[in-house]
Amino acid sequence: MMTTPAAIQAALRGSNALPLRPAHKVMNLERLGAMHQSRLSFMRILVRRVMRERWQIHIARLDVDIKGYGVVVYEVNAPHGLFSFVVFSNYLNAADRNDRVIATQWDLTMALVEGRVDDAYLEQLRQNVPKQEAGRVDARVFVLSRANRSARNFDYVVAQLASGLQPDVKKIADVGYLYRTTAVYGSGKLGMADWEKVKTRWPDFARPFSAEMFSCFMLRNFSLFQAEHIAKHQSPDTFVPMQHDIKRYFGIGNSTGLGMAPYLINHPLLINQWIAMRELGLARIRVLGNIDQRTEQHFQELLIRAQQHTQETRTEDEWQTQNNRRVVEDLIAMQHQTSQGVGSWHGLLEWSDAHCSLQGQELLVSILLELYAELVDDLEDYYSQEEFLDLDPLMPVEQLKSVIEQRYDWALNIDFSESGAKEIFWYRSEDKMEPRLGNTQHEQGKEKQMALGVGYAVRKCYDQLCEYADTYPQHTTARFMVANPKLRGIVRRIQSMNRCVYGDIQANLLERDVLPMHLLRAKLAFFGVSKFDPRSKLWVRNTMFQGAPLLEDIGRTFNDDWFMPLAPKQ
Asked: How far apart are CA 352 and CA 361, in angstroms?
């Protein structure tokens, strides 16, 4: 089923034919923080392309010792170009292994590069990639990343394989990866190619974050190769390779902190597009999703799979543990509710709103998207969006006032005079330029805060606008801007977002008890991660590409069925 961009925009502007969920519901911060991976997540989209287009990926240079240290260069023949994925593996003392952004050494550092890498260019990369932020690369590079070994898994897996044994799946389930990445950089940072160059010159990576996700996909495959390489040289007489199903159960770990949070606020048009495609997919299913016996059976299978996947998720965080328990309860309740037949998806969604947690409700959305590839998958072509916040200088001030009252009623309903309503401020650290949270009651630096308090900015703009409009009701926005030039940024956002359905997160991000974790999880869900393990309210560990096909699977039958992967039986 193909849908033109014009048709999509028509649907998103309120077509009665497709019942889109309202923005006040979808853009609630806690609901965004309850989202799960889906077939529209970036990892799923990437793997579909790699598998269906049969990308040719092979090791072009292998220069590592028996302990796995050295350099590996993969060559990637994609439909529209040749690329190289370069990995530097260095010895790292366990005491120096640190996932925080302040780290200066890592087990692995990597770069995704345009074209073939010769000796001279490899040496240039060798001098800079392992330094990460302290190095500099050129515009042939468009992704830079680093990763650390899992202390609990890597040496154990190597020892098992060297001894002729397979890793214990139950042990793997606790930490489903051999490495975790602590940063994946792109879009022009440190001298790399910017997004404009990537999307125009390299069509294979022209979708948001596809190059970054591909780098993580390649890291996952290298981690498995390295473990087998070390084990084979450690004990060549007893070594056995890892079984395919166990191998696929390994993902790549990820540690994500506040650095990801501002993106959702600073790119509202893009976030609107991401949310809109997901909501449009759901709306199509509610209207067009045929329910037959096969669909009913598949739905029940996915409920059981999601339940088992959630039960296999391990976290040390009590809050997330309780959330996972509630999700399991929700899934069991859904099974009972639909045991005699679904009836209609619309009815089931309304039932879940009344009886399930937010995480249970949003998991149901992901499961429904999984059922109907034919109604959903074409939406992956519409995830990009030009991001220009345009000022309409001719808009009458009375109309601007009306736009705020209608679109930003959520911001006007917040009482910013309450205690704690403006207690938090966001700023960038001087050392790493990474986002941090400050407290206005105890810390200095509020004057350097980032402009993430959209709700408060709208409130201040509205108050000044009302005062101005009372005196000059016939004036345009241009005249208002001349009188209040500092409001230009928020007025541009207000007018631009009035053309969107979603995009603005409807929450006060300056409030004392705000949970940045919700922002992190929302973006990570769009990436396609699973098994969230919060380490505080400021950072989270998770797993990427668990259950995804391996490099050796390219060219084989592919059914795109790695949603909510389960531990293999042993």
From this structure: 6
- Asked if residues 221 and 548 have their Cβ atoms less than 8 Å apart, the reply is no
Q: Is the pTM of this model over 0.85?
A: yes
At 109, list the tokens. Answer: 């550092």
Helix (H, G, I), strand (E, B) or coil at 471: helix
- The DSSP secondary structure of 14-28, one letter per residue, reads T-TTS-PPPHHHHTB
Q: What is the number of other CB atoms lying within 10 angstroms of the CB of residue 194? A: 13
Token pair recorded at residue 269: 């048009």
Measured CA to CA, the distance from residue 78 to residue 205 in angstroms comes to 10
The pair of three-digit structure tokens given for residue 355, joined into one six-digit string: 């009886």
Q: How far apart are CA 407 and CA 561, in angstroms?
A: 39
pLDDT digits (tens, 9 = 90+) for 135-160: 999 999 999 999 999 988 999 999 99
How many Cα atoms within 13 Å fall on the side-chain side of residue 332?
Answer: 9
Check residue 212 and give its pLDDT.
96
Could you tell me the end-to-end alpha-carbon distance of the chain, in angstroms, rounded to an integer?
41
Looking at residue 239, the DSSP 8-state letter turns out to be -
Under-70 pLDDT residues of the chain: 1-18, 99-102, 430-434, 442, 445-447
Query: 200 is written with which tokens?
Result: 């125009």
Q: What is the pLDDT of residues 202-241, one digit of tens each?
A: 999 999 999 999 999 999 999 999 999 999 999 999 999 9
Alpha-carbon distances, residue 422 vs 435, 437, 504, 508 (angstroms)? 18, 12, 19, 8
Question: What count of other Cβ atoms lies within 10 Å of the Cβ of residue 533?
Answer: 18
